[in-house]
Amino acid sequence: INNYSCPEIKTALGTIIYKGKGKPENHHKSYRNVRVSPILGRLLDEHMRPITNAISRPRQNPNQFGFTNALDMKKTSFGLSLDGESAFEVVNREIQKRELFVIGEEGDTWQYTNNGYENTITQFKMDGKLSRPIDEHLGVLQVKIKSSDHYKIFVGPALESLDASHLGYQLGPVCVGVSGVADDVYILTDSQDKLQQLINIAVHYGT
Hints:
Layout: E1 12-18, E2 31-36, H1 39-56, E3 78-83, H2 93-102, H3 107-116, E4 121-126, E5 129-130, E6 134-135, H4 147-164, E7 169-171, E8 174-176, E9 178-181, E10 184-189, H5 192-206
Parallel strand pairs: 1-4
Antiparallel strand pairs: 1-2, 3-10, 4-5, 4-6, 7-8, 9-10
Helix pairs in contact: 2-4
């Protein structure tokens, strides 16, 4: 776990891939950074995965698993799909680590996570040439198998606030106002006014 902070086992090789779908070729948001990391780091991740998942999975927001619509209630549905722009790449790592600590990561498990977010380096390959090493200070660890689980914990407070607003559909005793799958979020309600209020809450967490 202590050696996990060494950049030698975390330096990733990145390749820039055009997303397609008619996106402008001259805009940087039209490209995705695909990274490949050393096998030693991956092996350690696989070893730690059952331990970290046992902590994070029970604490993920329950609305991370799809949504229910109101067709059976014959109500008008107002919704908005939100896709975080480069969400995984711009995560504040100090906030990410704090949220993981809050849900119960401690001891060696916390040290493993903390070390994983330090000394991360990427080198980009393009036209057969390799760039200089670039230090990373933002973003979840996208070359890691736990990146999606980490982001779900990171976005949890936003989903909880949207839920706690009670501005969504009232389905019996349950109010459903948001559904999420990693960085894709769908807010839904039964009036335009409530939808605007839900958007305002989402904007607060997106800035």
